[in-house]
Structures are given as structure tokens and as C-alpha cells.
UniProtKB/TrEMBL annotation:
<feature type="transmembrane region" description="Helical">
    <location>
        <begin position="163"/>
        <end position="186"/>
    </location>
</feature>
<feature type="transmembrane region" description="Helical">
    <location>
        <begin position="54"/>
        <end position="78"/>
    </location>
</feature>
<dbReference type="Pfam" id="PF13520">
    <property type="entry name" value="AA_permease_2"/>
</dbReference>
<dbReference type="GO" id="GO:0015179">
    <property type="term" value="F:L-amino acid transmembrane transporter activity"/>
</dbReference>
<feature type="transmembrane region" description="Helical">
    <location>
        <begin position="21"/>
        <end position="42"/>
    </location>
</feature>
<feature type="transmembrane region" description="Helical">
    <location>
        <begin position="206"/>
        <end position="228"/>
    </location>
</feature>
<feature type="transmembrane region" description="Helical">
    <location>
        <begin position="240"/>
        <end position="263"/>
    </location>
</feature>
<feature type="transmembrane region" description="Helical">
    <location>
        <begin position="423"/>
        <end position="443"/>
    </location>
</feature>
<dbReference type="InterPro" id="IPR002293">
    <property type="entry name" value="AA/rel_permease1"/>
</dbReference>
<protein>
    <submittedName>
        <fullName>APC family amino acid-polyamine-organocation transporter</fullName>
    </submittedName>
</protein>
<feature type="transmembrane region" description="Helical">
    <location>
        <begin position="340"/>
        <end position="357"/>
    </location>
</feature>
<feature type="transmembrane region" description="Helical">
    <location>
        <begin position="138"/>
        <end position="156"/>
    </location>
</feature>
<feature type="transmembrane region" description="Helical">
    <location>
        <begin position="397"/>
        <end position="417"/>
    </location>
</feature>
<keyword id="KW-0472">Membrane</keyword>
<keyword id="KW-1133">Transmembrane helix</keyword>
<keyword id="KW-0812">Transmembrane</keyword>
<feature type="transmembrane region" description="Helical">
    <location>
        <begin position="283"/>
        <end position="304"/>
    </location>
</feature>
Length: 452
């Protein structure tokens, strides 16, 4: 059992079969590309409705970004000491033990990963249907086709997905810059101080507004799942997480101000998920609006690609440990490209099923709640690691212990807000996570019988 500096014991990790080929720009592109997707474009209406005023809506996006950044700074220290494929699954296991580690992995591969992919694809299909002039009945087929196409692309070696991440991240900056510049310089509304008078009362309050923004910020931790495929991950992983989240926080705040300067609050409320598409046409005409919508669709494809790169790596890491049914198949990688093809197809299949049974907006809130249950464990984990490891660290969280405490407070805030807002959905998703325990027990019993 290897020992890190200062005597902290780590569980033995499986030998990595994946290529260490991801550099700085690939890592940054995956972080930014995975975060910036559907949330900032489709959550403006729901954030505003919950907040009640434009000022509180802007504050919600900033507050959500601060929570995310403190969480990223906290996890960056943990990740720099555990640069293995698997991310949160590996961190929780090494800090708290096998059982909680398994639940963290099970949560990501059965609930969170497929749900977030299905949610982003669902939001993107709304824009695609509008772009091609199709009816609402085409939304699910468009979402399924897109997920399948990106999944097939990720059956190739990881460089292909990384290159696509760089291209789509660069491409998504065009619609983002257009919305920010046009809104800030040509908008004639007051971004601050507007009230949504058409809503009798804020639908959920500031807490639910922040929860909605966290879907827009979500995805930052997924780069940790590629720790086993990075060059010098001890230094690169913290840098990618911190710089990526900081850039997104600034971009999101400017986009929100730009949209609120161009569209009145009541109109954003009426338009809901179509507010950004309406702004594109209103600001740039039919052709310009089409081009801007195409840029946003490309942006969301980049987000899907980032998630499709990372979640199969969790399946792979768990399968290598024999934690899942059919682990021998799920851990298969291609001989040349070293791509976890069966794990990728598994995630694609689960996401496709979820598209048919859940609304994307509802899915987005529930998957954020589910993953934050385990984020909180990781945030507390930094105190455990500091106690166990007194030696030098590749990266140290600045302003310790203040930053981890803010991350913990933010996580508790998220959980309480969603429990109060949707207790039935919370019980459903927690139940799906807990179902993993008897499955783990059954898998291990089967392994013991085979060994006999």
C-alpha cells in the first residue's frame, strides 16, 4: 500500500491502461467546455423567476460561481495528491473507505452522469428544433441522435475528444462574446433593479435561484476523472480547475448582465427557455440569429463531449476494481487507442433512457443535488487529509480553512434548498443511489463464488 508524504496511506490503485496525452490547453478546454453549455443560455428565466428581481438574479449567478470556485480550490488540493482516473470516486474511497467510495462512483455512473448528459441534450434539442423549424415532437429524437453521434466519436482515442473540446470551446466564445458585447453596449434596459411583476411571488426564492445557477457551473470536477490521462497531473489538475472556474464565473456574470440590459425582466419571464434564442434574432436579425444559435448549439455539443469523455472513465475505474456487474466487459479498452468503448456505450444507453422519462429542467436540479451530497464529503475530506498529511503538497488551497468552510456552507445551502423545493425528487434520486449497496454486495458474493 503506497504512502504519500507525511504518512497518509492510499488504497492501491489499478494499473492505468489509458494514455497520458492530455496537456494544459486540452485540460483547460475540457474544464471550460464542459461547464459552459446549456445552463447559462437556458436557465436565465428560471433563475430570474426564483430570484424575483434582476439584481438578485445577477447575485445568484455570482454566488453560485463563488460556491463553485471555493469547491474547486478545495478539491484541487485533494486531486493533486490523488492523480488517478476516477476523480471523486477515488477521492471519497481513499478518504472514507470502500463503501462510501463505491456509492460516490455508483452515483456518478447511474444517476448523475446519465442525468446531466440527458439534461444538456434535452436543452440543446429545444434550440435545434427551433433552428431547423421542427415541432416539439422532434426534441427527443434530436437529443438521442446527438448523444449517439458524440458517443461514437469518443469510441476513438482520447485525443479525438480533446481536439473536439478545443475546437468547440473556441467556437462557443463567438456567441458568448456577441451576447456580452451587444447587451452591454446596445441594450437600453437597466440590468439592476428590475422586478418580475408578472410573477406573484418568487418561485422558490434566492436559494432555488442559486441552485439553478449551479447546473450552469456544474462539470468542473469532471476533469479530475482524467487524472490518469494527464501529463504531470499533480500540477496541471489544480491549475485547470482553478483557472477554468474563474474564467467561467466572469463570463457568466457578464452574459447575465448583457441579457438583462437587452431584454426586460418580464419578457425574459415570458420567454423562459427561449429567451436567448429570441435575443439572438432580435439583436442580429434572422440570419445573424441563426448563426448565433448555431454557435450556441456547438457550445452545447462541446459540453456533451466533455461529459462523454469523462463519465465513462469513472465506469472504467470502477470496473477495473470489479465493483460493477459485467466489470470484465465494462473495463475493456481498445488495444490501439486505449479508449473505454463499452463504458462509453453504457453511459450513452442510460442517458438515452432518461431522456424519455424526465424533463431536462427537473433533471438538472436533481443531479446537482445528488452530486453535492458527495461534494460535501470531499470538502470535509480536506481537513482529514491535512491532519494525516503534514508534509508538502503539490497544491495547497489558499486561505485555508476559510475557503473549504465556504465550500461546505455552500454545499449545505444547496442540499437544504432542493430538499425544501422538491422532496419527492430528492427521495427518488437518493433511493437510486442507495440501491447500489445490494448490487455491490451481490457482485462481491459472485466474485467469492468464482474464486472458490
Amino acid at each position: 500500500m503506497p504512502i504519500l508524504n507525511g504518512g497518509m496511506r492510499m488504497n492501491t490503485q489499478p494499473k492505468e491502461d489509458l494514455k497520458r496525452s492530455l496537456g494544459f490547453w486540452s485540460a483547460i478546454s475540457i474544464v471550460v467546455g464542459t461547464i459552459i453549455g446549456s445552463g447559462i443560455f437556458f436557465k436565465q428565466g428560471s433563475v430570474l423567476d426564483s430570484a424575483g428581481t434582476s439584481t438578485l438574479a445577477i447575485a445568484a449567478w455570482v454566488f453560485g460561481g463563488v460556491i463553485t470556485l471555493t469547491g474547486g480550490l478545495t478539491v484541487a488540493e485533494i486531486g493533486s495528491q490523488m492523480p488517478y482516473t476516477g476523480g471523486l470516486y477515488v477521492y471519497i474511497e481513499n478518504i472514507y473507505g470502500r463503501l462510501l467510495g463505491f456509492l460516490a462512483g455508483w452515483m456518478q455512473v447511474i444517476v448523475y452522469g446519465p442525468a446531466i448528459i440527458a439534461s444538456v441534450a434535452g436543452f440543446m434539442s429545444i434550440l435545434m428544433a427551433n433552428f431547423f423549424g421542427l415541432g416539439t415532437e422532434w426534441r427527443i429524437p434530436l437529443a438521442v441522435i446527438t448523444v449517439l453521434a458524440i458517443g461514437v466519436m469518443n469510441l476513438l482515442e482520447n485525443k479525438v475528444g480533446a481536439i473536439f473540446a478545443i475546437i468547440t470551446t473556441a467556437g462557443k466564445m463567438i456567441p458568448i462574446a456577441a451576447i456580452i458585447i451587444f447587451g452591454l453596449f446596445w441594450g437600453n434596459q437597466h440590468a439592476f433593479g428590475q422586478t418580475v411583476t408578472e410573477v406573484q411571488h418568487a418561485t422558490g426564492g434566492f436559494g432555488v435561484a442559486v441552485l439553478a445557477t449551479l447546473f450552469g457551473y456544474d462539470g468542473w470536477i469532471l476533469i479530475a476523472n482524467l487524472g490518469g490521462e494527464m501529463k504531470n497531473p499533480q500540477k496541471l489538475l489544480p491549475k485547470a480547475i482553478v483557472l477554468g472556474i474563474t474564467a467561467v464565473l466572469v463570463i457568466y456574470t457578464l452574459i447575465t448582465i448583457g441579457i438583462l440590459k437587452f431584454l426586460p425582466a418580464n419578457q425574459i419571464h415570458r420567454l423562459g427557455e427561449n429567451a436567448t434564442a429570441y435575443l439572438a434574432v432580435k439583436a442580429f436579425g434572422n440570419i445573424g440569429g441563426k448563426l448565433l444559435s448555431a454557435g450556441i448549439i456547438i457550445s452545447m455539443m462541446g459540453t456533451l463531449n466533455g461529459k462523454m469523455i469523462t463519465f465513462p472513465r469513472i465506469v472504467y475505474a470502477m470496473a477495473r476494481r470489479g465493483d460493477l456487474p459485467f466489470s470484465r466487459f465494462l473495463s475493456y479498452v481498445t488495444p490501439k487507442g486505449k479508449s473505454p468503448v463499452v463504458a462509453t456505450l453504457f453511459i450513452v444507453a442510460l442517458a438515452t433512457v432518461m431522456m424519455f422519462f424526465f424533463d431536462p429542467d427537473h433533471l438538472s436540479d436533481l443531479c446537482v443535488f445528488t452530486v453535492y451530497c458527495f461534494y460535501l464529503l470531499a470538502f470535509f475530506g480536506i481537513f482529514i487529509l491535512r491532519h494525516q498529511n503534514q508534509g508538502p503538497r503539490p497544491f495547497s488551497t489558499p486561505l485555508y480553512p476559510l475557503v473549504p468552510l465556504v465550500a461546505i456552507a455552500g454545499g449545505v445551502f444547496v442540499l437544504i434548498s432542493e430538499i425544501l423545493n422538491d422532496p419527492a425528487g430528492v427521495v427518488l434520486f437518493i433511493g437510486i443511489v442507495i440501491v447500489g449497496l445490494p448490487i455491490l454486495y451481490a457482485v462481491k458474493r459472485m466474485d467469492q463464488h468464482r474464486m472458490k
